[in-house]
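Entry 14: structure prediction run for Perosamine synthetase. Input pasted below.
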Amino acid sequence: MIPRLGEEEAQAAADAVRSGWVAQGPRVARFEQEFAALVGAGHGVAVSSCTTALHLALVVLDVGPGDEVIVPSFSFIATANAVRYVGATPVFADVDLGTGNLTVDTVDAVRTPRTRAVIGVHQGGVPFDVAALREAAGRWGVALVEDAACAAGSTAYGRPAGAGAALAAWSFHPRKLLTTGEGGMVTTDDPAWAARLRRLREHGMNVSAAERHASAQPVLESYLETAFNYRMTDIQAAVGLVQLGRLAELVAQRRALAARYHDLLATIEGLVPVRDPEYGETNFQSFWVLIDPEYGVSRDEVLAELAVAGVSARRGIMAAHLEPAYADLAPGPLPVTERLTRDSLILPLHHALTEDDQDRVVGVLRKLAG
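Run finished. Output tokens:
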């Protein structure tokens, strides 16, 4: 993934530095407002990463020791880690083969009386079925947190991914379409949650540092609860504001490149590329391909041949339950997760990718197919 950063972002960052206000301040506030409007949320709370966004979402829900939170193993390990940060137990559920996402059935299969929340991931930018999972979560009486780390620019049921979410967590890591270098956001329609999230990211203070410094009179702050230092800087937000203006163009470009990959791969038996779900559109933050047995070559052999050809592809999305950090858990069978993580790879897809680059990638895959 090559982030699209140019002179406008460099100028915006320089302007923030020259302003003398580089910590969380007016640019962060503006970025929060504009990002929340973009994704159809009432409030945005900028934080230092999507991982911290997930952590704060669970804190706001008062999830803690003795509680279980259902998560996909088929996700970056931060999704499960956030559950442990609050002392709760992550419970791994399997995913759908086509989307790589949780479904009502896979969540219900591992749900227990201790289940307090579900973290649904819009994996690789592919939206999960928000209508179905939100309805089920409400019926079960459990909270649904949306891990939208990869989903800026994706849609579900004609609305931006994350619109209508009780709590959604976003990432602005360089691998994402919209980047601030590092950084994240929590979006919510609940003003009370938004107010608490803002306190939690800033040591639990009842008034932000920016508000304190802007006041003409001395402000004696108080600290309402034990909290965290999860703030975003104005330098990052300045970059993010420029990036917001690029998002629609980047999504359109990625979708065009993905469509071309689909056309090129259609004649190669045994390769199944990720596609839009019937209820939405993906931003193609990641373009993964599942290798079926009839292809005749293993995923690792494909990665090795692509590397020889100078193509930087990556293994498919990880399975957290197979990592040493989660060896103490004993999840039930996760056959789809294990197949996806074993038999899929992520092909190059970024703004600098050319048609010649795509032809070279697919040429290797076609040659390996014999």
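Notes: The mean pLDDT is 95. Will compare against the previous run tomorrow.
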